[in-house]
Amino acid sequence: MTSSVLIADDDTAICEALERSLRFEGFKVRSAFNGEVAIQEIERDLPDILILDINMPEVDGIQVTKYLRSLDIDIPICILSARDEVTDRVAGLEAGADDYVVKPFSFEELLARIRALLRRRSVDDAKVVSVGELNVDPMRRAAFYDGQLLDLTKKEFDLIHVLANNPSFVMSREQLLNKVWGYDFDVDTNVVDVFIGYLRKKLEADGKKRIIQTVRGVGFVLNK
């Protein structure tokens, strides 16, 4: 599946150049020109990786990073900044960024770093995810709730894996369609509601509490 990149930088020339180059390399790319819009874009449609400038109006890159990490949103974040002091790099990494690239930069190096971060994310996605009494094992494609193995179809497993990887984060129907069914899957959006219903029926057997909540007008969230 095509990886999605969100570029957050108030320098439109850099955004446009990166958009062209990354699209040529096969990425799906969006841009935001300040930190506030970047957060809105992430909440609307979670990207696979965020390329983030520090010096932006409204909300700066450090604030964006801290905000995302406070919500347990663990997408890879690569800071792209003209600030080259060691203290700046340390501040970015301690805020929760995964990498720090100084401007001016080589696109080839940035591309290599993006791919490395996405590979690392793929390895992380293979680990067992635990949210409360729910345990999701992607290597075995098995999910257990309250110690019981759930009998899930392929899409049901993919859906619960995505939700478990984003606990307490409200995911829109569009985000779930993109992550589970693919960007080019032409389907009516009620398919998400149908599969959420299937999951709830299996998770809530024997009177167990509801852990997948509906956020009216937004989407769904997996809680502990």
Based on Cα principal axes, name the global outline.
elongated
CATH topology of the largest domain: Rossmann fold
How many E strands? 12
Low-confidence stretches: none
Largest sheet: 5 strands, parallel
* Helix and strand element order: EHEHEHEHEHEEEEHEHHEE
Q: In percent, how much strand structure appears in the residues?
A: 15-25%
Distance between the termini: 29 Å
GO cellular component, one term: cytosol
GO biological process, one term: regulation of DNA-templated transcription
InterPro entries: CheY-like_superfamily, OmpR/PhoB-type_DNA-bd, Sig_transdc_resp-reg_receiver, WalR-like, WH-like_DNA-bd_sf
Protein name: Transcriptional regulator ycf27
Describe the secondary structure blueprint for this structure.
Blueprint: E1 4-8, H1 12-24, E2 28-32, H2 35-44, E3 49-52, H3 61-70, E4 77-81, H4 86-95, E5 99-102, H5 107-125, E6 129-131, E7 134-137, E8 142-145, E9 148-149, H6 154-164, E10 171-172, H7 173-181, H8 190-203, E11 212-215, E12 219-222
Parallel strand pairs: 1-2, 1-3, 3-4, 4-5
Antiparallel strand pairs: 6-7, 7-8, 8-9, 10-12, 11-12
Helix pairs in contact: 2-3, 6-7, 6-8
